[in-house]
Write a structure and sequence with these properties.
single chain; about 400 residues; Chloramphenicol Acetyltransferase; 7-stranded mixed sheet; 19 strands; about 35% helix
Length: about 400
């Protein structure tokens, strides 16, 4: 029997609140299926299952808050698992009696109450809660869920049309404050527990920018590549050569086989989210760009999956154009490294005795001194420079 537990969506998370189950006992599930929605400081997160089988028991009630690691459900992994339906015990047959006026009145009341209860049951608990909080009349909504059940998405669609801008702003601000608190907790833990060391280098981005310009000539506006995609691709390639920076510190260095790059996304109202780009080393440049175009809007809308928040193995922070030249990142535990990219700026550059102006990028590495040392970090930066100086290798 497989125990499905409340996942940890970051070092700052200690507990989560089950908001809604998306499955019931007897449902078949496979890896990647969304089985629950959990409320955390980072917002409402869809929780995925990583096993295949049949849901046996749901052990938590909706709106129940439990610590990370608490068993939420059990899954039968058996290939031929059969869910037996409960047999209904027939009720004893009673002789029909002619009902009197009082009995008839009671039956009519019961019918009305049953109809009302049936109507209320046509919306999921989460949909009911959202509707109640925002003054949405469920009777005006057609459910798109199984058997016509009104879902969270149905209510949110109705809110888009009817909810006043003032109310929408109020919800967004509250969520952002929660995100800030979550990030603050993680960064405080990082400063307390991780002995950081820092390395910095400068990279001539002339060849990379020329390559990018030429590549974009062959692409439509929607498909064009941004400089950041080269940075992510270079980090993914460089860490394959220096794998000690791709992992977690958990009572020792735990190297990770998958290279999942956490990318820092700034929220428009303040704060950051750090979703993961899975298997970044196996993606071509265009695939990485597609991943960014998909994940950035969802991060800002706080519609990320649990795996996108919990499976990063190394983080990249990029300030973008017209910003500070250098950024020193704070490691997101339990990771052991974060790579910081400043703004690409035209600077004097001496090469082979000649001085000229080049587009230059300041790159920093913040790493956990328990896991690696300066020699390891330096090898990584040199590998990074190799790939950004030879973009055809990406």
């Amino acid at each position: 029997m497989i125990e499905f537990t409340m996942p940890s969506l970051g070092a700052d998370m200690e507990a989560g609140t089950l908001v809604e189950w998306h499955v019931k006992p007897g449902d078949k599930v496979k890896r990647g299926d969304i089985i629950a929605s959990v409320d955390t400081q980072k917002g409402l997160i869809d929780i995925e299952v990583f096993n295949e089988g049949i849901i046996e028991k749901l052990l938590l009630k909706e709106n129940e808050k439990v610590p990370v690691g608490t068993v939420m459900a059990t899954i039968d992994p058996g290939e031929e698992a059969v869910v037996k339906k409960k047999e209904k015990i027939p009720e004893p047959i009673e002789k029909e009696k002619t009902p009197g006026p009082i009995a008839k009145a009671k039956k009519e009341i019961e019918k009305v109450e049953l109809a009302q209860e049936h109507h209320r049951a046509k919306a999921s608990p989460l949909a009911k809660r959202i509707a109640e909080e925002n003054g949405i009349d469920l009777s005006n909504i057609t459910g798109t869920g199984e058997d016509g059940v009104i879902t969270k998405d149905d209510v949110e669609s109705a809110m888009i049309e009817k909810m006043a801008p003032k109310e929408e702003k109020k919800v967004t601000v509250a969520t952002t404050e929660n995100v800030r608190m979550a990030v603050a907790a993680a960064m405080s833990k990082s400063n307390r527990e991780i002995p950081h060391y820092y390395l910095e280098t400068k990279i001539d981005m002339s060849k990379a920018m020329d390559w990018l310009e030429e590549a974009n000539k062959q692409r439509s506006v929607k498909q064009r590549l941004l400089p950041v995609v080269l940075l992510i691709g270079a980090v993914a390639k460089a860490v394959t050569e220096v794998p000690d920076l791709n992992g977690y510190w958990q009572n020792g260095l735990e190297r990770k086989e998958e290279i999942n790059i956490g990318f820092v996304v700034s929220l428009r109202t303040g704060g950051v989210m750090i979703p993961a780009i899975h298997n970044a080393d196996q993606k071509a440049i265009d695939e990485l760009m597609a991943s960014l175009n998909d994940i950035i809007p969802r991060a800002r809308a706080m519609k990320l999956r649990s795996s996108e928040l919990s499976e990063s193995t190394i983080t990249v922070t990029n300030l973008g154009e017209n910003n500070a030249e250098t950024v020193y990142g704070v490691i997101y535990p339990p990771q052991v490294a974060i790579v910081g990219f400043g703004s690409i700026t035209e600077m004097p550059w001496a090469e082979n005795g000649l001085l000229g102006a080049r587009p230059v990028l300041n790159v920093t590495l913040s790493a956990d001194h328990r896991a690696t040392d300066g020699a390891t970090g330096s090898r990584f930066l040199m590998a990074l420079k190799k790939y950004l100086s030879n973009p055809d290798l990406l």
